[in-house]
Amino acid sequence: MDAIVKMLEKHQPFFEKISRNIYLQAIKDGFLGCMPIVLTSSIFLLIATLPGVVGITLPQPLIDWCNKLYNFTMGVMGIMVAGTTAKNFTASMNRRMPAGKVLNDGSTMVAAQCSMLLLAVTQFTTKFNGSELSVFDCTSMGTRGLFSAYIAAFITVWVYKFCVSRDLTIKLPKEVPGAIAQNFRDIIPFGGAVIICGIIDVVVRNLMGVPFSELLIKLLSPLFTAAETYPGLILIQAATAFFWFIGVHGPSIVQPGIDPIRLANQAENLQVLLAGGHPAHSLTFNMSLVGEFGGTGATFIVPLLLILFMKSKQLKAVGKASIVPVAFAVNEPLLFGAPMILNPYMLIPFVAAGCVNVSVAKFFIDNVGMNGFSFVVPWATPAPIGIFITTNFQLIALVFVAIIILLDAIIYLPFLKAYDKLLCDQEAERVADLGLESDSAASIAANASAPAVEQATATVETTVAAADSKPVADQPEPAADASAKKDVDGLKVLVLCAGAGTSAMLANAIKEGAAQTGENIASSAGAYGQHTAIMDQYDVIVLAPQVRSYYNDMKADTDRLGIKLLAPRGKEYIDLTRDPAGAIKWLRENLD
């Protein structure tokens, strides 16, 4: 097992390089920027549809109003994603531009949206009440047009880069106000991007007889079909868990490529449900509630297993500390506290549990009559509740939840027991080394200088350190009396993670610590990729462990703005979330 971990460590830089790919980052961050559309539209859809489940009939005008709000939010999702993807891709491209040359992200955003419409939307004329009307086919403006959105965004930014790098712009006298001059500088790249996408649209329509968005769906349909088989679902889930296990945020690598089909399938499931049929798609957006049941690795039941069945004080402490966060899919306290990341004892259950869950889900959807997921719920919704809601409140969904909880417990328990035995033996050895009886282990843990939750084995400690040994490692060690010298009064701190869940834990700890110590410190939590518009408002930015692989890109931005960047390692981060006063001390020690 140690050999497997060493092999994974050897290839970790390659996997991290994949996670930092600017195209994947732009897709992920662009989609994340549109999550309010997904969640808000789903609320109105639930209002319109769910009362009928319990026999309540809403007034038709209210139903029509809710449906209109849904159609004009989720229905234009593709257009919005084209803009947000282009904006984030522009930010990455600007880091690679020659000195003094910058792409205008506002202009690339608008150009990408126009280009996406050219690639995805069909315009035709029809007669209505005796008059000829020009009509847009809105089918591909939403989730069906996401691939067109990504292509439009990438083409647009590359055209802008080509033009700006070579000064192919309209230049005005220096007396012209900057905002007006910028508009003229953007005319050539804007026109170039739109013309290129327009040409692509004409060629595809004439050769294939379908808009570009339909062409992609047609060409990739075999891949989508394969992804919705048992092997396909297992592969997707295994890859997500595998990347997280080696310390790279798995969803950031795996999900961008399948988000378009996941959202399209979920929208199709909804249409079938509203028509009275059986939603049969299993590869949907909220399948993550099953595969990542309690977080990546399907860890929902693990904290309870630690509390009830483990004898090691370390694992019991981790279980108590993580049971509430894990219920809301924030499982970093468990991943870094046990630890599970790069822990050879945990590799098999961490990958296998989610794979088993998605397989059982597909079986229930295909053979038992459980609905495929049709509604979208926030990612932090407790998984059992989210599954019950998004299957349209089916009782069979509760049976399904009970079964996968039992299966996950069966998968994890033998490996946890083996790891627990190792920790108990090591705790006994520490007691013997100190000349104490084994029943005094609790007092040792209470008085030890290290935190109660610590690395248990030299192997795990080494591997976790290796996973976290990023550029932060060269930060100077603070002086012993640094906390007494550094002033943090008036400090503004932004904590970033992948989805603003883990970051909220540290941001809240900093707020609580500031209140305890009387410091005037403001702290906020955010998602990496959505920080660019607000980062200049902060003095310090902290990267959570799950987005630590973006340190170098982030460092370029923070150095330019004069912002302090910190990136604590996994276990250190979790310890800070539990120690508000210690979080304030840590900030003092790490300020220049």
Report on the structure:
The protein is 62% helix and 6% strand. It has 592 residues and is mainly α. Strand 3, helix 23 and strand 4 form a beta-alpha-beta unit. Helix 5 crosses helix 6. It is globular. About 9% of the residues have low confidence.
Strand content: 5-15%
How are strands sequenced across the largest beta sheet?
4-3-5-6
Helical fraction equals 55-70%
Shape: globular
Q: What class do helices, strands and sheet pairing give?
A: mainly alpha
Distance between the termini: 42 Å
Mean pLDDT: 81
**How large is the radius of gyration?**
26 Å
Task: Give the strand tally.
Answer: 6
SS summary, helix count = 26
In short:
The protein is mainly α and about 600 residues long. The protein has helices at about 1-20, 20-35, 35-50, 60-70, 75-95, 105-120, 145-165, 180-185, 185-210, 210-225, 230-245, 250-275, 290, 300-310, 315-325, 330-335, 345-370, 385-390, 395-435, 440-445, 460-470, 480-485, 500-515, 550-560, 570-575, 580-590, and strands spanning about 120-130, 130-135, 490-495, 520-525, 540-545, 565.
Question: Topology of this protein?
Answer:
Blueprint: H1 2-19, H2 22-33, H3 35-49, H4 60-71, H5 77-94, H6 105-120, E1 122-128, E2 131-137, H7 146-165, H8 178-185, H9 187-208, H10 212-227, H11 230-245, H12 250-274, H13 288-291, H14 302-309, H15 313-327, H16 332-337, H17 347-368, H18 383-390, H19 395-433, H20 441-447, H21 458-468, H22 482-485, E3 492-497, H23 502-517, E4 522-527, E5 540-543, H24 551-561, E6 564-566, H25 570-577, H26 580-589
Parallel strand pairs: 3-4, 3-5, 5-6
Antiparallel strand pairs: 1-2
